[in-house]
Amino acid sequence: MRISLRQRRAIDFFQGTLAVKEPEFTEVRIFDTTLRDGEQSPHVSFSYNDKIEIATLLDEMGTHVIEAGFPVNSKAEFEAVRDISEGTETTVAGLARVIEGDILAAIDSGVNMVHVFASTSDVQIEDSMHSTREEVVEKSIDSVKLVKDAGVECMFSPMDATRTDLTFLGEVVEAVTEVGADWINIPDTCGVATPTRFGDLIRFVKEHTEAYIDVHTHDDFGLATANALAGFEAGAHQAQVSVNGIGERAGNAAYEEVVMAAIAVYNANLGIDTSRIMELSSIVEDISGIAKPPNKAIVGDNAFSHESGIHAAGVIENSDTFEPGVMTPEMVGARRQFVLGKHTGTHAVRMYLREAGFDPTETQVRDITRRVKDYGAEKKRVTKRELMRFAREGNVFREKVKE
């Protein structure tokens, strides 16, 4: 049986220094909250059409759950959530506080899942909800019952779980499980978790519920994706993510990072069409107005770009030399680039010249490479036009066309 390039790379990777005897997980799910938590990014507001466009693409890609918004928030929000529910084939969730009006609005919008939440950390109970632990448990139970009585799938989130008293967290989880919660989402609301500690927390929650477990991680310390993956390793079934990692403060675990790490590094099955990730990322960037940094993992302009002479030479010979190997630009709908600048080597210059139809000698390649380096050292951008100029000035001739 012929082994594909993707399979070969995976085999090579998992036989290397990171080889594992048993996979940490094999199948996980993605809950996208770009339209809800992502929209809560400062200065971001999605129109009805914006939401429909993003949701349609998420659905086409095979995303397992789309959290379309907060239906009780406004008439426009309600209509967007309703129409996304009607127009997509995936599971659509609507957010609700443990307030009857919120829950009824979500149910009326026609979502497949109502995601109810209540603060469980003492600081939020006292200074945000102005409530008590007892009231939180009572409202949480009543809310889950209301959703389940309507025949709708229910997810319950103990908000700020990573800063909640552990005994109380177990009590709340058990209480909502007993009345039928289908999913328990564990949010690292303020982004204070570390992968090891978060994994331990998920294992603790598993001991207190028979419901499916979902995780929601924030990126205040740059650990959101690592924590989401640690959640998977500990037995979580699903992770909440947002495209490009947008969201409150420093944002959420990024859709593209969690998806590609799960597929390429863990070799897990997600059933998502990753070839449209760049398209999805660009649409969200344009609509949200939040620019991706060039070094953004997976979708940044530099993610598959090479300037260093050593790196470029290796990648031109075999892309596995200085790229992950188990993830290629084609897998996410991107293209590999060789950037000309201060660190450029002769291999990239020779490649570009030959692609443009030139037939340089080795001496000419070295001379032009020196000009590229000098030009780039002045912090000037070396474009292909500049390279062609250097070639003409260096009397490099184009190859003769064979008749």
Structural class: alpha/beta
Number of strands: 10
Largest sheet: 8 strands, parallel, barrel
Mean pLDDT: 91
Q: In which range does the helix fraction lie?
A: 40-55%
The total count of helices amounts to 15
Low-confidence stretches: none
Order of helices and strands: HEHEHEHEHHEHEHEHEHHEHEHHH
Radius of gyration: 25 Å
Shape: elongated
Strand content: 5-15%
Order of strands in the sheet with the most strands?
1-2-3-4-5-6-7-8
Question: How many angstroms separate the termini?
Answer: 42 Å
Structural features, described:
This protein is 43% helix and 12% strand. By secondary structure, it is of the alpha/beta class. Helix 8 (195-206) links the parallel strand 6 (183-188) and strand 7 (212-217). The two termini are 42 Å apart.
Task: Write a brief structural summary.
The chain has 403 residues and is of the alpha/beta class.
Q: What's the SSE blueprint?
A:
Blueprint: H1 5-14, E1 29-32, H2 48-61, E2 65-69, H3 75-87, E3 91-97, H4 100-108, E4 113-119, H5 122-127, H6 133-149, E5 153-159, H7 166-178, E6 183-188, H8 195-206, E7 212-217, H9 224-233, E8 238-241, H10 255-265, H11 277-288, E9 305-306, H12 309-317, E10 337-338, H13 346-355, H14 362-377, H15 384-393
Helix pairs in contact: 2-3, 2-11, 6-7, 8-9, 9-10
List keywords for this structure.
single chain, 8-stranded parallel β-barrel, two-stranded parallel sheet, 403 residues
